[in-house]
Recover the amino acids of this structure.
């Protein structure tokens, strides 16, 4: 089969949740997934009601089994090009296939951009962490650090302080205001100023001037970069930061294209992304029903 009601691009929580709703609505659905989930380095998934502590790979495997049980198809591939035609969208894949659909649900997520500090990327998802709500409970009451390389890092450290009395903020020179310092000191958050040279075994944070501080976990707020090449190809409106502009259901400025999850919402955790996928699918199916009615009326009149 080469033509579908809906092609879902991205097989994470948002994409699979949307595919489940659409398949249960008796739509023909194809999920295109590159097999590179953002949370692959994480051993466990936290904060998902009834699934707290489950390995992310198990959630995705269960989701794939569920949607295939309702007749949806899954293909492991990357999208190389998308083209908006008159009444459908054409999707070209890197396995040589070309498939079409009446609608697209784009759930391609985002990527985490980290500072260029030796040793940081290698520890990502283990003891270098990005989200205190995802990982804070597991490292509670330990020696925690915050790498302050983005705006708002001082406030981020205040949030991390919720999980431990021993928190140190590593802040570049000139990034802290007097108000920041007062607030950090008031809650006994340590301040180490300067450039971080490396993150070494034993989670030893070495500064450019030779100072070294040992921590048990280091929180690094990443810069979020949406995986939006499909949306760019299709001419979807983006804001100044490169995030897609949508209505509350995830519909883009291109009327055949919906989005869900981290590609449109950098703050969406797994449970949030799954909810967005479901909501987008319901709105998308309603739009398809309107289309079905228009076609039926046209044929009836003919």
């Amino acid at each position: 089969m080469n033509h579908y009601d809906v092609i879902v691009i991205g097989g994470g929580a948002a994409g699979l949740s949307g595919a489940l709703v659409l398949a249960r609505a008796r739509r023909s659905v194809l999920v295109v997934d590159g097999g590179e989930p953002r949370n692959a380095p994480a051993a466990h998934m936290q904060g998902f009601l009834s699934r707290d502590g489950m390995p992310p790979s198990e959630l995705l495997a269960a989701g794939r089994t569920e949607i295939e049980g309702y007749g949806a198809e899954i293909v492991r591939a990357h999208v190389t090009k998308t083209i908006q035609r008159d009444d459908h969208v054409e999707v070209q894949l890197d396995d040589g296939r070309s498939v079409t659909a009446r609608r697209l649900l784009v759930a391609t997520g985002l990527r985490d951009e980290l500072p260029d500090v030796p040793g940081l990327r290698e520890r990502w998802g283990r003891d270098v962490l990005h989200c205190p709500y995802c990982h804070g409970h597991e490292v509670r009451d330990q020696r925690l650090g915050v790498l302050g390389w983005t705006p708002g890092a001082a406030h981020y450290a205040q949030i991390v302080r919720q999980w431990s009395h021993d928190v140190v903020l590593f802040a570049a020179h000139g990034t802290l205001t007097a108000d920041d310092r007062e607030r950090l000191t008031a809650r006994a958050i340590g301040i180490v100023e300067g450039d971080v040279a490396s993150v070494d075994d034993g989670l030893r944070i070495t500064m450019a001037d030779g100072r070294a501080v040992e921590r048990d976990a280091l929180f690094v707020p990443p810069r979020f970069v949406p995986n939006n090449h499909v949306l760019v190809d299709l001419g979807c409106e983006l804001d100044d930061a490169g995030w897609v502009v949508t209505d509350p259901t995830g519909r883009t400025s291109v009327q055949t294209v919906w989005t869900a999850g981290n590609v449109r919402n950098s703050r969406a955790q797994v449970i949030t992304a799954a909810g967005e996928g479901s909501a987008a699918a319901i709105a998308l199916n309603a739009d398809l029903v309107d289309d079905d009615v228009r076609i039926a009326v046209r044929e009836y009149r003919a």
In short: The mean pLDDT is 94.
